[in-house]
Amino acid sequence: MLHLALFLIFGVIAVVGAINLIAQTHPINSALSLVVVMGSLAAEYLLLGAEFLGAIQVIVYAGAIMVLFVFTIMLLNAGAEEQTRGSKVAIIIGIPGMVIGSVAVAWALIRAHTGAEVPVGSLYGSAQGIGHLLFRDFLLPFEITSVLILIAIMGAVVLARRES
């Protein structure tokens, strides 16, 4: 019962942090909200028995990637965002689409619930299993992702470079 309560609490924190991420006008505040989301997801992983994924979530995403985001934001000297009234197309299509998508996901989750409980920690999660998957089965996507991150860093440096 305690696990379920903590799971729900961290889930609410993740959702509130994600909404705050979108609602903020200053990029640094948005980055800090993203750190809150990443931290609560790490806590969710810990509650599910995937300690390795929780640690990787904190080290890689909440640590390294967020430092990169903050460094890029400060390098670009981004100020507060300009407020506009928004797009009518986004409101007309986005809100009904979000409602339809939420109902579809809820319906699929309710329909798929068979009553069979999976013990916590019985699925993937060992460091050895993840290492085999990452460096043997999914090596090419892993390397492509690292090249894309390198290209993004180079693009941020080129955009931030000042002509003198």
SSE topology sketch:
Layout: H1 2-23, H2 27-47, H3 51-76, H4 88-112, H5 127-137, H6 139-160
Helix pairs in contact: 1-2, 2-3, 3-6
Outline the structure in words:
The protein is an all-alpha fold and 164 residues long. It has a domain at 1-80: NADH-ubiquinone/plastoquinone oxidoreductase chain 6, subunit NuoJ (Four Helix Bundle (Hemerythrin (Met), subunit A), Up-down Bundle), CATH 1.20.120.1200. Helices cover 77% and strands 0% of the residues. Helix 1 packs antiparallel against helix 2 (27-47) and helix 3 (51-76) packs parallel to helix 6. The longest helix is centred in the middle third of the chain and has 26 residues, at 51-76. The protein starts with a helix and ends with a helix.
Features:
single chain, 164 residues, mainly alpha, Four Helix Bundle (Hemerythrin (Met), subunit A), 77% helix, globular
Which parts are unreliable, with pLDDT below 50 for 5 consecutive residues or more?
none
What is the rounded Rg? 20 Å
- Estimate the strand proportion: under 5%
Helix content: over 70%
* Structural class estimated from helices and strands: mainly alpha
Arithmetic mean pLDDT: 81
Topology-level CATH name of the domain at 1-80: Four Helix Bundle (Hemerythrin (Met), subunit A)
Summarize the model shown.
Helices cover 77% and strands 0% of the residues. It is mainly α and 164 residues long.
